[in-house]
Amino acid sequence: MRYACLRCGYVYDPKKGDPKNGVPEGTPGTDLPKQWVCPGCKSSQDDFAKMEEDD
Q: Which CATH class is domain 3-50?
């Protein structure tokens, strides 16, 4: 499940993770470290919403 930042549009993709910010590939959005923030605008995880997956 991918998550989109509602403020800047950044998309967190678990397949890619966020290695620049210490999140390895394969980390589900539900398992992100509590201190992780949007790399695009520094918003908290509360500003992210699940994206609908393509069938």
A: mainly beta
